[in-house]
Amino acid sequence: MLNRMEMIRIFCSAADCSNFREAATRLGVSPQTVTRVIKALEEELGEILFHRNTRQVHITAFGEAYALRARQMLEDFDALFRGHRAETESVIAGRIGKRFLVGFLQPLLKQHPQLVLNLRLEDEITDAVEAQIDIGIRVGFLRDSRYVARALAPVPLLVVAAPELITATGEASDLDELQQRPLSVLIDRKTGRPWPWTFAHGPSLHPPAPALVCDDPEAELEAVLAGLAYGQLPAYLAQPYLESGRLQAVLTEQAPDPWQLFIYRPQQGPVPPRVRLVFDHLRTCFSNPVQFPQG
User: Fold this and answer.
1) Which of 37, 197, 214, 276 reaches 20 to 30 Å from 237, CA-CA?
2) What CATH number was assigned to the domain covering residues 157-254?
3) pLDDT score for 85
4) CATH 1.20.1530.20, domain 4-79, yes or no
């Protein structure tokens, strides 16, 4: 049973999203959980929070007012632990900024030469409010009600290897056979623990004797390209090499549900025009279906 604080967090996320499924994706829970929480809150409050039908949900006037109070309550609560809170969000450590961000911003800088950018390209989770960051880009789940976040595109996870390695080891037909192949492991720099490989319908894989262990996604990519190991990589890293034939995807039917690419900004106070300009520009760029297919 969820406690009231978690129920309020789920409600605030639903209030920020266009539907319960989007809220569920953002939080890493099932849509049924969001529906149950909203129903339970409505019964306890004696008020309707959302008007909903089979295709749409719309927050009510009471829900809007309640969301304002709820966000402030969550902000006050989180402030008690800020700087000491253990981060539990799931994140793919991928340098999207290094790979795409500079190129995306180049035409905007030419059009607005007065803009001055301060880029922080980090793999670790950063508290954007505490660090006074105007805009963040990340892959994974965003559970913090202090941010205005928009899901831009799905990011599939793919098991890939160099064709020469697949030929040498034989293509795995299931997860048991995959474990017998040389596999790579990516280390979470914050915890020092390896990220598990994830698959459809819930199973996860912790390679018992990995052929490669590293804490940098692009170093892992280089090792996979060199034929040293199989890797489970985000599609934005693997796709160019899949298209060129340098990598080959395996066990595609076992791929997990895609993660989400988010753009976000702190929601406290007014939004300066320069921040809105860059936010909207990046939102358009990262929504490009050519580089980030929508499904």
Assistant:
1) 276
2) 3.40.190.10
3) 35
4) no
